[in-house]
Design a protein that fits this description.
Pfam families: FAD_binding_3, Oxidored_FMN. This protein is of the alpha/beta class and 771 residues long. The chain has 27 helices and 28 strands.
């Protein structure tokens, strides 16, 4: 009987003989030779799909420490190279210093087969494994490494709760009988649409006339694949067609397949990775797009972690829990990067008109794992050439290049994002606002934005929200702008105007965010009478008279904003507040001319924008903040967001401030580093409209990367400026920059160099004694 939860795993069943399953078996047997380990693989030993696999130095380091025998065998086979070639419209750009290692998948499996046999693992080829539920009754541990189409996962779906998303590109794995001299990306613009080639070597020249081998993956959008007629072609015909399309990259050579088929990539996510004594590993547990070369890498790393946890923990339940705790954050981070890369290639046509070197830089940094600073370390010459093309003066990081909006020139690309402070009295900003915004103006950002400033007393979110609906409020704001202009010359200050809509009359954030007030409530209005949360107050649906009144409140506030001395005005059409409520189909259920189609839902926000633009000085810019997705089914789509941005731009918006969510309370955001940037990127490159991006941008390296790649024009940072009001000044100091893109206040000049830290010159040990 199984010994689950009692001691270490002795009898282990492995379902699937791919690299992850084989390596897990070898490691576990090596750690305890008394273990009985059986691997079931439905295919023959030499059957394999795909051609070459890529492993990182980090993964190889783990293999070296865990099993030097396997590491030595891999070392003898690896092809290594440093360069990436990007060929676009007949021009090749090369970036070096990347460091890849690859070998043939068949050879990798052969090495692992041999190691398993040496250690005494029972390998059963051409054998279907018994069901995991059956194995779990007679084995201590069942490792389901049965791939992306895992039967174990599907049969026990209620336990693992898998989610599988199929993506919009088709791709095919092929091989060429020569070795590329770099990792190669090539773009083909055909009559049917854009196609791309991903190629890399996995074996070098051998004896005789062999010139090595390369993996070649051809990928394109589903509609391009259909239009090109690939759906009607067999494997050989597809292979020959791909060779003709990419004849230049292949030097006129042929391609070959290996039971190759056109498939759509599927992203696999599981809510749980183990059930009882059965655990998922590799593609059965998670997948990440091939464009970041992660599948085999993740499976091997899973095997390393699982073996270590089984060695370290007192029992199998503890080991499986520790394994998932250790691996899940790493896998989720990789999946976020892989998704960014996958979506970049899905949207490849949007980038084709970028300047050639910027296009190459954009491709290299698409996953956000390679950054501007990282690429500079790898290949300074290439990075500097991209900067020159972008217009960076020598020694100037991209973030410190100026940006013009109408008559306003921002000296750098950093924006202090609007942040509600809930600290006004009767809508009047006080000393807190002066110090808060004044400190950030002194901190070096090109543009400092106020919090959402409400256009009426009933348009406030909370009793502590600031307003611009009285002259007293306007005078108080003038105090803030005068300070910024006098004490931080060169820093622009902008005002964000908004109305809370159905999200008003709530407590201060630290007393209960989005919770209705216990007393002192005011009436709420919205496009439709839908409460924000189950316990929220129900708003009244705005009639025509109400719409006119609110439009006038916005224009009155805009006139006061001009009197207050603001340099830029932003209209808040995001986060579920009043104007945002008109845009989203989840919050706008109207049946009149302001509801239904997107054109109708845009009608009132555009009326408000037009009314403000008509009176706002012609030389001063206006921006619009939107929620580019509601993070909820049936809400605003990416295509909607592009249309919304295009509509505001057509009415005179100078830039779109692209945020997401907070429209409905049951949203499910996909949080992660710079997680909102893809929405800004899509809008910018689909429409040509300048954008601000916001959301988990925390480093100056991120800012430089996003701007230089052409994914955004400005970066708005919120929490980093709460942590450090002088974030921009410190970013300049850390990059050794002292040009016109940033200015230290004279009073702070002595602090413009990073303070010395503790002593770091202690003698280093020269000898390490073994135990």
């Amino acid at each position: 009987m199984a010994a689950t939860g009692q001691g270490r795993a002795h009898r282990i069943a492995v379902i699937g003989g791919g690299p992850g399953g084989l390596y897990a078996a070898a490691l576990l047997k090596r750690l305890d030779p008394e273990r009985e380990i059986t691997v079931w693989e439905r295919n023959a030993p030499d059957d394999t799909f795909g051609f070459g696999v890529v492993l990182s130095d980090e993964t190889l380091g783990g293999i070296e420490h865990a099993d030097p025998v396997v590491y030595a065998a891999l070392q003898a086979e690896f092809v290594r190279w440093d360069d990436i070639d990007i060929v676009h419209r007949g021009t090749r750009h090369t970036s070096g210093g990347h460091g890849f290692a690859a070998l043939g998948r068949r050879r990798l499996l052969g090495i692992l087969h041999e190691r398993c046999r040496q250690l005494g693992v029972d390998l059963r080829f051409r054998a279907e494994a018994p069901p995991a539920a059956e194995l779990s009754a007679s084995y201590d541990l069942v490792i389901a490494a049965d791939g992306v189409h895992s039967l174990t996962r599907e049969v026990q779906a209620e336990a693992f709760e898998p989610s599988v998303q199929t993506h919009r590109c088709r791709y095919i794995w092929l091989a060429a009988d020569f070795a590329f001299d770099a990792f190669r990306f090539e773009i083909a613009e055909t009559e049917h649409g854009v196609m791309q080639l991903h190629g890399y070597p996995f074996s070098t020249a051998g004896s005789g006339e062999s010139t090595g081998e390369s993996t070649v993956i051809v990928e394109m959008r589903e509609e391009v694949w259909e239009a090109a007629g690939f759906a009607q072609l067999d494997e050989q015909e597809s292979t020959e067609r791909c060779a003709k399309i990419f004849a230049d990259a292949l030097g006129g050579r042929t391609l070959r397949g290996n039971k190759s088929a056109w498939i759509n990539f599927r992203t696999v996510v599981n809510k749980r990775w183990s059930h009882g004594n059965t655990v998922l590993l590799g593609d059965a547990a998670h997948t990440a797009h091939f464009s970041i070369g992660s599948g085999t890498k993740l499976a091997v790393e899973d095997a390393l972690a699982l073996a270590a946890c089984l060695q370290e923990q007192p029992g199998i339940p503890e080991a499986l829990a520790a394994y998932e705790t250790e691996r899940r954050p790493v896998v989720e981070s990789t999946q976020r990067a892989a998704r960014a890369s996958l979506e970049w290639f899905e949207r490849l046509p949007d980038y084709l008109d970028q300047p050639p070197r910027q296009f190459a830089f954009n491709l290299l940094t698409r996953s956000r794992r390679v950054t501007h600073d990282n690429l500079r370390l790898r290949d300074a010459r290439f990075t500097e050439s991209v900067e020159r093309d972008f217009g960076c003066p020598d020694g100037t990081p991209p973030m410190f290049t100026p940006f013009r909006l109408r008559d306003l020139t921002l000296r750098n690309r950093v924006v202090v994002s609007p942040m509600d402070m809930y600290s006004a009295r009767n809508g009047v900003p006080g000393d807190f606002h002066l110090v808060h915004l004044g400190a950030r103006a002194l901190g070096g950002a090109g543009l400092v934005m106020t919090e959402m400033v409400c256009v009426s007393e009933h348009g406030r979110i909370t009793p502590g929200c600031a307003g611009l609906y009285t002259d007293e409020q306007a005078d108080a704001w003038r105090r803030v702008t005068d300070f910024a202009h006098a004490q931080a010359p060169g820093t622009a200050i902008g005002v964000q105007l908004g109305h809370s809509g159905r999200k008003g009359s709530t407590k201060l954030m630290w007393e209960g965010i989005d919770e209705p007030l216990d007393e002192g409530n005011w009436p709420l209005v919205a496009p439709s009478p839908l409460p924000y949360k189950a316990n929220s107050r129900r708003p009244l649906e705005l009639d025509r008279a109400g719409l006119v009144e609110i439009r006038e409140q916005f224009t009155d506030a805009a006139r006061r904003a001009e009197r207050s001395g603001f340099d830029l005005l932003e209209l808040h059409c995001a986060h579920g507040y009043l104007l945002s409520g008109f845009l989203s189909p989840l919050t706008n259920h109207r049946t009149d001319g302001y509801g239904g189609s997107l054109e109708n839902r845009l009608r009132f926000p555009l009326e408000v924008f037009d009314a403000i633009r008509a009176l706002w000085p012609a030389g001063k810019p206006m921006t619009v903040r939107i929620s580019a997705t509601d993070w909820a089914d049936g809400g605003t789509t990416a295509e909607d967001a592009v249309a919304i941005a295009r509509a505001f731009a057509a009415h005179g918006a100078d830039a779109i401030d692209v945020s997401t969510g907070q429209v409905v309370s049951d949203e499910r955001p996909a949080y992660g580093r710079s997680y909102q940037t893809p929405f800004a990127d899509r809008i910018r490159n689909a429409t040509g409209v300048p954008v601000l991006t916001v959301g988990a941008i925390s480093s100056w390296d991120d800012v430089n990367s996003l701007i230089l790649a052409g994914r955004t024009d400005l970066c708005a940072l919120a929490r980093p400026h709460l942590y450090d009001p002088h974030w921009t000044l410190h970013a300049a100091a850390e990059q050794g920059y002292a040009g016109p893109g940033v200015a230290w206040p004279q009073q702070y000049g002595a602090g413009s160099r990073r303070p010395q830290t503790g002593r770091t010159d202690a003698p280093k040990p020269r000898l390490t004694l073994g135990s």
